[in-house]
Amino acid sequence: MIQAFRERRSLRIAGLMGPGAFWLIVFFLIPLLIMAVISFMSRDQFGFPAPPLTLQNYGDVVKDIRFNPSISFAGGLNIRLFDGLYLELFWRSIWLALTSTIITLLIAFPVALFMSRLPRRYRNLTLFLVMIPFWTNFLVRTYALQFMLRGNGPINTLLRTLGLAPIDLLFTPMAVMVGLVYGNLPFMILPLYTSLEKFDWTMIEAANDLGANTLQAFRRVMLPLISPGLVAGSILTFVPAVGSYITVELMGGGRTNMIGYTIAQQFSASVNWPFGSALALLMMVIVTIAAVLYFRSGRGEQRAVL
Amino acid sequence: MADYAVEMRDVSKVFGDVVAVDHVSMGIRQKEFFAMLGPSGCGKTTSLRMIAGFERPTSGEIYIDGKAMGNTPPFQRNVNTVFQSYALFPHMTVEQNVGFGLEMKGLSRSEIVRRVGEALELVRLPQMAKRYPRQMSGGQQQRVALARALVNRPDVLLLDEPLGALDAKLRKEMQIELKTLQREVGITFIFVTHDQEEALTMSDRIAVFSKGKVLQIGTPLEIYERPTTRFVADFIGETNFLEGRVQEVNGEFASVIADGGRRFVGRAMDGVRPGVQAVVSVRPEKVQLVEQPDNSPNCYEVRVHSIAYVGSDTRVIVSLGTNHLDVWEQNTVSTLDPNYFFKPGETAWLTFKPENALVLAQ
Amino acid sequence: MTSDSTIILLGERGEIKPKPRGETRRFGVGRFALVTIALFTFAFLYVPIVVLIVFSFNSARTGATWQSFTLQWYDRVFSNTRILEAAANSLIVATLSTLGAVVIGTLMAMAMERYRFRGQSAWDGLLYLPVIVPEIVMGISLLIFFAAVNISRGLLTLIISHIAFCMPFVYLTMRARLADFDRSVEEAAQDLGANEWVTFRRVTLPLLMPGIISSALLAFTLSLDDFVISFFVTGVGSQTLPVYIWGQIRRGITPEINAISALMLVLSIVLVIATQLIQHRQRT
Questions:
Q1: What is the annotated localization of this protein (chain A) (predicted)?
Q2: What does pTM read for this prediction?
Q3: How many domains does chain B have?
């Protein structure tokens, strides 16, 4: 009888898990595995994968890395020990993604804090104002920003009417950064707000009462309790930033290259699937390591995104 | 009709490596108000859930009205449950909630309407039929849960701590109401509670659970006056324990030599033989403080430690050697005379009759 | 009033209850700074959007000099068959992939929340993975996959891919809802004579409905908004609206794009309001 019960139970689990498991394996895992395999293949004359297996694609990524220490002051202090085309590409992508995540966080935190301290009615209104861009097409929003900053866009037109010289606002690393921050702000504000809204402010009073100053109370009491929101927001900002494609094209005009954009090019403009797969795999590894490290460092007991 | 409404025969339930119910056997008589009493985690709720059919016994068998239940699912058992959380369907009105079971039985619309009306009448909520559960108070929700179960005319009604979520005053009212209701409908009630006062007030019989086992089954009077184990004596009401060794057993009575060589005499319970470790259990209301020693064998000089006046009685803590004992003196006369009673630090004589004390084997 | 998407990303279980609020004026000195930053941020978020909408009514073909009010760009949008086709494709893909994602995601959430079985924690991790794998990687891996198994790209590949990336979000939303689900209500139904199927249909499903609707709205929006993955798995005749817009933007500015963008913005606002209303209704 118990045997029959067990069989019925496992049949039921299989029935419930089946379709989803099938989809996840066939249309998510297997494609990633095929991509990994292709990254070890040669390319034929059209740029598509062909035998034999090779390490060439990974060799291409590291082949021009040289020890070449340099210091420059272009765009802030730059200290470099190595150079190399793809090394620089990865470095720039991570650097831009990381900086934009930090800037986004620095803007989003006070905004979320402000929202959470409002009376209920206004709180819901501001939340609504954050949710509209949150749910709006990312491409459309980035396009709107590009439209604003364009050479003949509203800002430069305004400058011209005022008799001032127009300025180049687009197609610079700075423009990409602004685009990333603009695009990702709602994804940082919303999780932070969700954590802050639930935060019981009497705990800060309790911490003060026990002798903690404002900074200590923030660090020891508030930070651990809002860390789920912090982690979720940072992941939601950092991951798309590393792999960003739309922003690089629209805001950087393809001039400030980032890894996601280069990968996309291997599958569209200049066809080289094996090399593109190798870059994609490397990027995935980097993002996963970053995410895992970030989760580990995240304090607080609550389970966050993963 | 079988003798027992519900019978558990050697039932055990194991979750992983936790034995929740450990070889429990008991019979619940027809039309009885039966309480399963014990601290949390003692197995009482698991037993109830096995009767309802939500859990299957790991071993043993449960009989409802003489029929072995085996793997019969809950929806084929003629028992109904009042859940601790009430478990009312939030998306249905009171009427729809109460009518759900009848609908499942396939009764006609008009029959359902009639019986739902009667059931709501019974719990005194006829005007609430169109409301949703969330629009009602806790006490009202509790009655809806009761109506929803009773309307099906089950052989047995199972109640899982049904009064737990109510405040103290409402609880008292509902205790009386439930008892009256049970007599009115003439259905066997099995009631799970951790509140010993509730169990004593309402039940015909009580089963006291501890660590998955049933320690004692009996009427409230038996459970209170003749607990067979130290656990039951301690869990039901308040009591004083005096530990020692049995000196001799003489018919119904046994004498115990306690710490400090003092000798106490009480009723000998099961397993009391000369030489075994035992405790003398005596309830605080059965102990008196007097100015002069009397002829009871349990009369010793004590020092009054503290006194608390609680209206109906005066609660005194006295020290006897290293032991502290509770003594509750009923305030049978009204007086504000400061010299009327003992004061802390004074000495007095403590006395209790052998027939009011129990000697329990350890 | 918080979106489900953030709740699941926070790993939260359940409703967000209002918490006791401390004294509102705690940040006395910093208050001015907070208000200022918040105002600037909202302006930063909204000015480009509002400007775009305003200029979608500008009759000038190029540049940002205001000429006169016109509805001609909207008129062109609604008479351009390629735009209408792209919009229809987007709606077909979003509808079918929402349906698919909601069904398989909900079933999976039921299995994961209500049973304990071997390999469960591996699935738990795997279901989070699509959230942290960059879109571009998912897009190209699907492109490679469809090429490898020789499925020609079109609406079918779009729907398959959209189900794949929407399903984990549905799963996470439904899992959170199921964790909150009071199972004694199901026991009560069985106790009252309902068998398992009737219990599911009469009690479980109606009570899960708000969660199902929320996750469907989430999946619908994700599908409608997706550009990167669609870009790689779309075929010649099956462009979705974002893919079409992308092509036009790259070719240069056409004022129709401003009009489409404005329309898509209005659609987002409608969806946000719908979500809010549903979540609000649940609470009262």
A1: Cell membrane
A2: 0.80
A3: 2
